[in-house]
Task: structure prediction
Amino acid sequence: MSALVCLFFLSFLSSTPLQAQSKKQLEKDKAKVEQEIKNLNSQLSKAKKNSKAGQQQLNLLEKKIAERTKLINNLNGQLNLLNIRMTETEDSIALIRGQVDSMKLEYGKVVRALYRERGNLDKLVLVLDTKSYNYAYLRTKYFRDYSRYRRRQAMAIQQKEQELNNVGEELRRQQREQTSLVEQHRKQKAELASEQKTRQKELKNSKQQEKNLQNQIAKKEKQKRELQQQIQRIINEEIAKARNAKKQQQSTGSNGSKVSGNAPAPSAAEVALSNDFASNKGRLPWPVAYNKVAREYGKYTHSSGGQNMNNGIDLVCASGAAVKSVFGGTVTRVFTCPNGTKGIIVRHGDYLTVYANMGTVSVSEGRKVTTGQNLGTVYTNSDGVAEFSFQLWKGTASQNPRLWLR
Result:
């Protein structure tokens, strides 16, 4: 019996550090997951402030649900580990209680036996009623040892009962911990269910937002096509107007007589301006200070699958960024873009520069401008985005602005 008790306690004690280590690791993992959920909640709150962050918000919610699931699994692990420890503690209580009962039973037998023989027992008689001194000494020693045994037995019973109380208190502590973990588990399950419901709602909203965004993109692309067509038409009109003016000038001499001729020749001033402009290729200043390029020059495929031609370069700028002329010339047209913003065309001999998506214009048609002169400001839309479009033409042929700007 004693060997079995020792073996059980050795097994119990040897398993406790491993379980404590596992519990410590689980609690550490739990704290880490809870911090991750806290961070995701913070990011989610920021994402909700942005009306166009639907996909980002959905992604954060997905991550949060994954972390919440980890936390629930962690709590399950702690509950399983705690249940094992509680079972071992209950077994220890049963074992100790059995030992206490056995010790009390044995002690009771001794006490009852002594009580029955109390009239027949007289230590002095038992000691003196011996055949020799040695027998007397042995009997004296026996009574002394037996008294010590009874005291030790009583003390051992008290210690076992104290041990039983301690283990019982540990069990009660474990039961309180179990109650706390179960409550946490219930709360996390409820949070998970709520988040999954929110995810379904956000997914539905995200699809609607995606549809709305596609409609907005389609509308914007349509406006871009209309702008390209409008600029192309204005360029053609400007070229035709200039050609007609030259023809009219050449058809009438300085004395008012008509002069015959075919194609009108450009004036010396126009030739000089065109040559001066062409000689600055690759050295023209940028018309605005920009943060990034939204779209380069050339054909591109937009999200709806169609193709558009960008005859210039689109730049994302700071709100209210100043627009400046890239070279000296004459403002030949101030027009309204399809999206309601303003546009300007400046002629530099045979070359024309186009400034579109402007919020304000500070020059008028017919006015001469110099390099770096302020023409107005970039338009900023309701989302706080300021996107400016710049084009460069030689006659009716669009040029890649990248090749001209420094």
Summary: The first strand starts at residue 290 and ends at 295. The two ends are 96 Å apart (CA to CA). The chain has two domains: 2-214, 283-403.
